Amino acid sequence: MVYDAPRRSGGRKSRVSEPVDPSGTMPLSGTPTRSAPPRPSGSHSLDIPRLRPLRVRLRRLDRCTRALLVLLKAGCALTVVYYFGAYAWVVWSRARYPFDLEWMEGAMVDHVRFLLAHGNIYTPPSIEFVPYLYNPLYYVVAASLSWITGVDYFTLRLVSILASLACFALIYRLVSRETRDPQMGLVSSGLFAATYALSGGWFDIARVDSLSLALGLAAIYGVRFAAGRRGLVTAAAFVWLAFEAKQSAVGLLLPLALYLFLFQGWRRGLWFLIPGVLLVGGSVVTLNLISHGWYGFYTLLLPSRLANYYGRYLWRSEIFGNLPVALALGFTFFAARRSPSGLRVKAFHGLVALSLLVVAARVRAHAGSWLNDNMPAHAALAILGGLGAGALLSSTGGALRARRLAALTYAALLFQFLFLAYDPRQWVPTQADRSEGERLVEMLRATPGPVLLTHRGFLGWREGKGSFAHQMAVSNLFLAPDDLRHAKSGLASEFERAFEEKRFAAVITDFDDFQFAEDLRRSYRPAPPQFVQDPKAFRCLTGARLKPEFLYVPK
């Protein structure tokens, strides 16, 4: 039976039929049902077989993306392991090397020895000792450790090794806590480890940079996660300690205080700023009084008189040119709208990164600067790289889109890691280096009387040939445009008298045209250096590639 029934929306009728049996001859019940509308002729909008190839392709693409993501993650993990392993192997291979890895290392050991003997390194310049331009903390730490390990290269290198490990740990902790992703912490720490060659192989040598950077990073971490006033005072103390290792670290004080003033209130800002200013200022005044003004002369006045030779093109090539992906990821971190960090954290890391970059640029501009002064900038970009990658990986979206974005992020990180690849063997002394150094030691022992090694501090003292000022420290005095406190004229007269009196049984220099070469040649004549048999061996592995190769004996 078929009948028409009106629609609820109006009076128009629709055709409704009762169900019929399979034969189609009679209805099965009295319940009326609406008949299905006929499919339009030639329409394929619901043709499931036509959609099946597209779905297959999407599933294949998803599987490929998953596989690619796994490979990229594995590649990044392997490169991180490689860089940490390369660092560990280099450190293990050269920590006990008995000669200079860098041409100023020996004089750093002399500073520790002089501090233990006299209790003060900031004294009037003399032919026996001229201090470098650094603050005293590194020497104090090494002197304390020397009671256990002795005064040697190894003691000072051990301080730097422990400090560089602290840098790795602090970068890891900062980024992993910020992104809530330990993998990103490892990425940032691995990026910093990958800059070992960019920094001139400096992480583990007997110089102040690793210690100063580690203390600065501790201050940064302390300000970011300080829970109360005690944490802020502790962070201020770390800034002061970083300054006591290398003066440029004081550049962290005001940016960190500005962050606290802007985002946590003026009270918390003052709890950080006032202790920091008092510690820094009080130490400067105290050390200056103890040294009768020589501390300020060497560490504050003299560095301000040095010329600046650093060009912008070097900054672009040394920093941004070598870490382009980390820089781009840093911009991504600041530009990400849905980053879980928020404005406060972005402002914090913006101020920190800017201050570290400025510190590096300012010190790199000084005459005599080297690649090690870029280490704060490398740390800043390593941190920003991990934060930017974390922001990309935490962005919202569909599963397929998230995997594609993750694959792109890990591909960029892998490219950056590979771009920084270096051969660790170039940073390890060879047997030829050791043999050449041992020939020099034999010559020193066979020479009766004191020997002036103009560029090899500690080596002459170790072999019983006296200890004398390093020519880099001497050159710092003569780079100043004026004769401050008559330091230049007094020291020049002392060297001139020593050469006239033929005080030294021999003079060995790395650089034939050093500061007092003319005075030397009046009383000494060049002699063939029998200890030099391999011109390529025994050159410093980082810094100026010098070696002792010029010998003078009395006329």
Descriptive notes:
- The structure is a single chain.
- The strands form 2 sheets. A 4-stranded mixed β-sheet has the order 4-5-7-6. It has a 3-stranded antiparallel β-sheet with strand order 1-2-3, with no helix packed on it.
- By secondary structure, it is mainly alpha-helical.
- The protein is built from 20 helices and 7 strands.
- The N terminus is likely disordered.
- It has 3 domains: 31 residues, no CATH class; 234 residues, no CATH class; 124 residues, no CATH class.
- α8 runs antiparallel to α9, α13 runs antiparallel to α14 and α19 runs parallel beside α20.
Q: Which features would summarize this protein structure in a list?
A:
single chain; 555 residues; mainly alpha; 3 domains; 3-stranded antiparallel β-sheet
Summary of the model, kept short:
This protein has 555 residues and is mainly alpha-helical. The chain is built from 20 helices and 7 strands. The protein has 3 domains: 31 residues, no CATH class; 234 residues, no CATH class; 124 residues, no CATH class.
Order of helix and strand elements from N to C terminus: EEEHHHHHHHHHHHHHHHHEHHHEHEE
Overall outline: globular
Number of strands: 7
Task: State the helix count.
Answer: 20
Share of helical residues: 55-70%
Please give the radius of gyration in angstroms. Answer: 35 Å
User: Widest sheet: strand order?
Assistant: 4-5-7-6
Main pleated-sheet profile: 4 strands, mixed
Structure classification: mainly alpha
Q: Would you tell me the overall average pLDDT?
A: 88
Which strand-content bin applies to the residues?
Answer: 5-15%
